[in-house]
Design brief:
heterodimer; A: alpha/beta; Rossmann fold; 2 domains; 6-stranded mixed beta sheet; 35% helix; 30% strand; elongated; B: mainly alpha; MetI-like fold; binds adenosine-5'-diphosphate; binds magnesium ion
């Protein structure tokens, strides 16, 4: 995918929360560039600083150090009233949807247009267009309390898109939804990214969300960026400890096989999974124990990873590594 | 049971009580509502924090609220005479009723507005809403059911304050109850006025509840 101009640039961004008796460094030296039209993921464990980061992007939180450059505008240099205007070109959706409970669907979508001073007539027209985009035309007069979680998030997305923003910020937008609904919301986000060309920033603690829709990902750990890269790259070859932990989050129990040597085999689509393991067992004449596998078959090619338990004796172990080397199968020892 | 004269006296009492209560409630809301909004907006976690202003207004509200109404009534007499020209009659009682209940209303409004989910305010901010847009398009409409319920409580409180006006000859049902029940030991006339007060309170509470349920779209 060819990227265009930078849409959001974070330069040496830092945020410290200070109060009488506490001092929390929520963000430290964050440097990131998010390009126009991409779906950019930011993943991290709870408390890593994800929400603070996304709130700095639209200046709901004022960074203590560094700069946020949005569409070539340095947000630290604009006046308050200009900032309000700029926020109209950055939509935001949340885990808890945050719809106005006393307004129906249609009026919720009209809300940002009212804020922007658009006439009631034009706002209503635009709201109906958006209801169509999110597939909720029949719920125009329903109140949030009468909608399911997925429907609420659709309304929130329509509302966020009302002012035709350049960027959509999503803070844990699917974390309160079940897996099926999550998938449908992610599909919707992918669709609007394609059809509107809108840049999307996805904050999540779930690797599956990143995998599903993001082009690139930044991993944030303890207030800092640990790793940035194309999603496939980070998935196949996670470098930082936190990246490995997140990528193999389904395989946490591996750590509990103490005393055993393990090896992670990475399937990057060049090899097909079955012959690799079968041939390895045949050629090395040693059985291996599969501890964890998270692989996907796409067009007959294997993607994902597998953790195997290595044999005790050194010669068998060496044979396995030799086999993987000669066949150019990406792998690493897990300690 | 009662003579024509007594019935007329009671019906005048009802009219005076309703007049004082409604007028005082309206005027007290004109003062108390903005004050309550100010307390929420300028709070340190509010949408336009002004910590010093918030502290000062909070202290004034607390002082006014801690003065017993009867004391306030008497203390304000010179001021009441200045404004109304007399310290007798329903109009004169409106002055202390408004000053005494406005701070209470400010706190009621404050607590209603603080019930609004912070996430909704944040969503509005993310759309570029200004503080005044947040107040009038988010805080007040979202808190409306709670504000209505608070309104019923405020009206009932003002009604009960107005009955105390009986001691200073303000008129209304309170004056009748005190004149007959307290000074002349005519229990039946006192009882009937108290019963009417109870019915009014009941009616206001009922009406408040109904309006609240009708306005609330979360149900
Ligand atoms: N307003 C605040 N005041 C003080 N500390 C805060 C505030 N907001 C967030 N924090 C702290 O900053 C850190 C990062 O929080 P957050 O960005 O919400 O993490 P995440 O979204 O990744 O779970 C946490 O330690 C949190 O307690
Ligand atoms: Mg968060």
């Amino acid at each position: 995918m060819a990227y265009h101009e930078p849409m959001i640039e974070l330069v040496g961004l830092g945020k410290t929360f200070e109060s009488k008796n506490s001092y929390v460094k929520a963000l430290e030296d964050i440097n990131l560039t998010i390009h126009e039209g991409e779906i950019f993921g930011i993943i991290g464990l709870s408390g890593a600083g994800k929400s603070t980061l996304v709130r700095c992007i639209n200046y709901l939180e004022r960074p203590t150090t560094g700069r946020v450059i949005f569409d070539k505008i340095d947000l630290s240099e604009v006046q308050d009233y200009e900032l309000l205007k700029i926020r109209q070109s950055m939509g935001m959706i949340f885990q808890q949807f945050n719809l106005l409970m006393q307004r129906n669907t249609l009026d919720n979508i009209c809300f940002p247009l009212e804020i922007a001073g658009i006439s009631k007539r034009d706002a209503t027209k635009r709201a109906y267009e958006l209801l169509e985009v999110v597939g909720l035309t029949d719920k125009a007069k329903a109140y949030p309390a009468q909608l399911s979680g997925g429907q609420k998030q659709r309304v929130a997305i329509a509302r966020a898109l009302a002012t035709k923003p350049k960027v959509l910020l999503c803070d844990e937008a699917t974390s309160a939804l079940d897996p099926t609904t999550t998938r449908s919301i992610l599909d919707l986000l992918r669709d609007i990214n394609k059809s509107l060309g809108i840049t999307i920033v996805v904050i999540t603690h779930e690797m599956s969300v990143i995998e599903e829709i993001c082009n690139r990902v930044a991993i944030i750990d303890a207030s800092r960026i640990a790793e940035v890269g194309d999603v496939e790259e980070v998935f196949m070859r996670p470098k930082s400890k936190i990246a490995k932990q997140l990528v193999f989050s389904g395989a946490n129990h591996i750590e509990s096989f103490v005393g055993e040597d393990k090896c992670r085999i990475i399937f990057d689509g060049r090899t097909s999974f079955e012959p690799v393991i079968a041939n390895m067992v045949l050629e090395c004449r040693t059985p291996v124990n599969i501890l964890f596998a998270d692989t996907k078959d796409i067009d007959g090619k294997a993607f994902g990873q597998m953790v195997i338990q290595l044999p005790e004796d050194e010669t068998s172990k060496k044979r396995i590594f030799a086999y993987l080397e000669t066949n150019k199968i990406p792998h690493e020892e897990v300690i | 049971m009662f003579s024509q004269v007594v019935l007329e006296m009671i019906s005048k009492g009802i009219r005076e009580t309703l007049y004082m209560t409604i007028l005082s409630s309206l005027l007290a809301y004109i003062l108390g509502l903005p004050l309550g909004i100010l307390l929420v907006v300028t709070d340190k976690d509010g949408i336009a924090p002004r910590v010093l202003l918030n502290r000062i207004v909070g202290i004034i509200v607390n002082i006014l609220r801690s003065i017993p109404f009867v004391i306030l009534l008497v203390t304000l007499m010179p001021f009441t005479r200045l404004v109304i020209g007399t310290t007798l009659g329903p109009n004169a009682l409106v002055v202390p009723l408004v000053i005494g209940s406005a701070p209470y209303i400010a706190r009621l409004v404050e607590s209603s507005l603080k019930e609004v989910d912070h996430g909704i305010i944040e969503a509005a901010q993310s759309m570029g809403a200004s503080p005044s847009q947040i107040v009038f398009k988010v805080l007040v409409p979202e808190a409306m059911p709670s504000l209505i319920m608070g309104g019923a409580i405020a009206v009932i409180t003002i009604l009960s304050y107005s009955a105390m006006g009986g001691f200073v000859g303000a008129g209304g049902l309170g004056t009748i109850a005190i004149n007959y029940g307290y000074y002349r030991y005519q229990g039946d006339k006192m009882l009937i006025t108290v019963a009417i007060l109870v019915l009014i309170v009941q009616g206001v509470q009922e009406l408040g509840g109904r309006l609240m349920r009708r306005s609330d779209k979360r149900l």
